[in-house]
Description:
Blueprint: E1 22-29, E2 42-45, H1 48-57, H2 65-68, E3 70-76, H3 81-89, H4 94-102, E4 108-112, E5 115-123, E6 134-141, E7 145-150, H5 155-165, H6 173-207, H7 214-232, H8 234-244, H9 252-318, H10 333-358
Helix pairs in contact: 5-6, 6-7, 6-9, 7-9, 8-9, 9-10
Pfam families: CorA (PF01544)
Keywords: Cell inner membrane, Cell membrane, Ion transport, Membrane, Transmembrane, Transmembrane helix, Transport, Zinc
Family: Belongs to the CorA metal ion transporter (MIT) (TC 1.A.35) family.
Amino acid sequence: xxxxxxHALPGENLYGSDPAGLIWGFRFSAPAGPADAEVSLQAEPxxxxxxxxxxxxxxxxxxxxxxxxxLWLHFNLANNATERWLRxxxxxPEAFFESLRGGLNSTRVERVxxxxxxxxxxxxxDFFFEPTDTATLWICLNRRLLITGRRKxxxxxxxxxxxxxxxxxxxxxxxxxxxxxxxxxxMLVDLVRRATLQIDDVEDQLLAGRLNHKRSRLGxxxxxxxxxxxxxxxxxxxxxxLLQHPPVWMADLDVQDLRDATEEFSVVLRDMVSLQERVxxxxxxxxxxxxxxxxxxxFVLTIVTxxxxxxxxxxxxxxxxxxxxxxxxxxxxxxxxxxIVIAFTIIAGWVAFRRRxxxx
Length: 360
């Protein structure tokens, strides 16, 4: 895909994008032939310069979208030039720019007149099962334009780019949003599978009596699942509310696709909740085994202390440098003292083990 990188200044930090902040862009146009409301549009890579010209030639007016085509632009919000370019050329509502600076990154979908604003949380491209390996994707779409932006590389949006590049059929901007949600659901299904394999391995080693450091692994897994659930759970409810009153430009087929994608997403979230409960039960089992090992160690320490008590007391008493030490002049005094110590040690051990048996 041709971009405007050749116009960058030497040493300028573009954060993986062109000088306008564009990472990639696609222009969708209808193939030659009779117009059809459900026709699949053909994708063509586009640069920021071409996108600026396209937006100038196609002002946002009511009319046939298929004839003019669609535009999908994906920006890197870490590039300072991105917001300026969007304000100058994209004609986006002020609410979109406020959401970029708002700091509230919980998943939501809002309607501002005939424009949809969405904040979607996703896994980072380099994901290592850490709770911090999540980031936010901002979305703004209308009848003819889809704007997406992120500060860190994300997985689902890149999967959508690959699908579009490879010829995935696209009807409208709402269809692109539905495909993005399906890719995100597929990514979460893969995450649940991988997490389940790790939890199965921990469970097998737990049943075999090999704890090692599985408690920390379970803790990290649970923190990740809790974070994803907290970030992603509002998305289905928000979409369902929106789809009750969609924008006038959204076709019935697009509304149904978004509804189906939302239902798939809800199923995945329920699986994540079930997996989180399973991790919680394993953590409780690990904690119980650790407590049992600790109790056994304390019991052994108690027994050793009790068995050593008679000899310590006897040695302390007989070791005092005072007169009147019994059996000091007796020819068999040492054997008598040893016999007394052994007898008291046996009695103390019997009492300790009897109390243990009485306690279950």
